[in-house]
Amino acid sequence: MPDPNTQRPHDPTTLSPNNPTTLARNAMATRFEIAMFGEDPVHLRAAGEEALEEIERLEAQLSFYRPESELSHVNARAAEGWVTVSPTLFYLLQNAQRLSRTTQGAFDPTVAPLMRCWGFAGGTGTLPDPDDLRAAREVVGMERVQLDEENYAVRFERPGVTLDLGSLGKGYAVERAAMLLRENGIERALIHGGTSTLVALGAPPGESGWRVAIQHPTREGENLTSLSLRDTS
After folding, report:
1. What is the pTM of this model?
2. What letter does residue 217 receive in the DSSP assignment?
3. CA gap 161, 70 in Å, rounded
4. CA 2, chain centre distance (Å)
5. Closest CA to 161 of 180, 181, 146
6. pLDDT-based confidence at 31, cuts 50/70/90?
7. Average confidence (pLDDT) over 99-106
8. How many CB atoms lie within 10 A of CB 71?
9. Is residue 49 within 8 Å of 66, Cβ to Cβ?
């Protein structure tokens, strides 16, 4: 039986006139879609299913909200001592640390305590209590996350530090899905997560690239422009 979570997209992302093999699945609180061209639809569908399963696997590993995820395991224990993690998670944490340093802290995956303090985590926003705000600031900052590259281990400087990789997870999932498609010999594909994060492989037949519409940020149903993407993200 087909996977009930896998379905044809309702709103195709590309503007190509051809008919690609398409798959979609809900994961990471958004909708991932894959469009592929090739000579063997059965092979295309099998490769697409494998790519979507990888996205679901990463969600189970990196989810901030699932108590059984590897990230939740780190959040629960890293203030007590070093926690060994998988190479995948360590790679993402290294990238997060590098981005945080490059942006002088503007990018910060430890910001969850401040998000809760201001009511942005599942709420509508609220003015925080000054004491709560000071306490949240004491546990925010990637400098409070220590990484041991030799042992793939993570440690927090103090209790209360929390990692949320939602800003990186979707992009990494799309990247991994594209890698699996390439390994399966798929040369023409477009993968996107929530229409905001995408990877283009090759181009549709007869096209120079995948044409992708950029939606207007405030006018529903209106596009600003479209881009032609090929072997890029």
Report:
1. 0.81
2. S
3. 16
4. 25
5. 146
6. very high
7. 95
8. 24
9. no
